[in-house]
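Protocol step 4 of 6: structure prediction from sequence.
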Amino acid sequence: MGRLIATTVAFVTAVLVLGATPTVAQESDDPLRVTVTLDGQDITGRTVQLDPTRPAEISVTAENHGRTTRKVRLIRVSGVALALTFYAYDTNLPFEVPAGQRVVRTFPLDVRDLEGQAIGLLPTSVELLDEDRGVLGGSETVADVRGSVWSVYGVFGFVMFVLTALIWASVLIALARHRLSANRFRRALRFLPAGIGTGFVAVVTLSVLRWVAPVPAVEIPVVLGAAVIAMVLGFLTPHPVAPPPPAEPEPAPEGTTVGLTELFAPRPDGPTTAMPIPTDMNTHVLPQPTVANTLEDPETPRWPG
């Protein structure tokens, strides 16, 4: 179970590190310059609010500074955290942007599904895509999503918390039972998954509480910092001490007489064992009675009692 949890956390970490910077497919070196407004306010450099109870009106202004006409197929609004996409809305709105010109398109965005998809602060991007779903240009902002705690993003944070707690419990139990490796570096690696999970939980918690958005400039240092701290703790843990072997029973001195009560009495330091009987003990043998056949010889005396 511990290995499965550690593998899951390591996989999510790899996705986070490798997918922190999204790849933008562009047809030329001059993408469209995109300006986006939400309900009449520019989203650049500010936090916008997405409320599932009311639709949002988005206005996109695309400026083509290239030499060819750019053809836009659809507009995508998506929210990403920890290199995972938690919501995405594609609006089919074909239009062309001639070279050296500017085109403005306005459309309503129905965000009622956000109630069960996300909550808190999430990095959000508005992108213009072509026929092959390549990105022609876009704009980024931070959205304050007014969703439910039991949304996909909220449940994701809760699951990460449970997995991290299980990892910490398994590591601390192994530490208490002196089952960790004697090598300090191996002990540090044993603490690594717990640190990574703690970083994930911290990033999601800060996002849900609307304190800090999980942008790559924040989430990567938090996760890596928590991993380093956990490894340092594992490296500094005390060296595991093996339990002392059970004490061997001391043999009785030669010539010592041992009674039956002492012979079979339970020892305080181990199971009940029979002590060897010294060779010089006096053995008392009871006389064996002689049983006569009373049927053949009635005069033969019988054994008393």
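Step 5 (inspection) to follow. Residues 29-145 form a domain with the Immunoglobulin-like fold (CATH 2.60.40.770).
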